Amino acid sequence: MPQMSPMMWTMIMMMSSMMMIQMKSMLYFEFKKKKSVMDKKMKKKSMNWKW
After folding, report:
1. Dist. CA 35–CA 42, nearest whole Å
2. Taking all residues of the chain, what is their mean pLDDT, rounded to a whole number?
3. Alpha-helical regions (H) of 1-51
4. What is the dihedral of CA 15, 17, 19, 20, to 10 degrees?
5. How far apart are CA 37 and CA 46, in angstroms?
6. Mean pLDDT throughout 7-12?
7. Confidence of residue 49 (pLDDT cuts 50, 70, 90)
8. Long-range CB contacts for residues 13-17, cutoff 8 Å, separation at least 24
9. In whole angstroms, what is the distance from residue 49 CA to residue 44 CA?
């Protein structure tokens, strides 16, 4: 195992955390999009049930 300098380690940690945040936000946006689509479909269904 080669010894890594603290600076290098910090860089890697920062990079990985940033990537995690990006992935989380992307997943969150996808979820929101899907949810809105689902809500619209549900609204349409409930409208159909009323009439």
Report:
1. 10
2. 86
3. 6-50
4. 160
5. 14
6. 91
7. low
8. none
9. 9
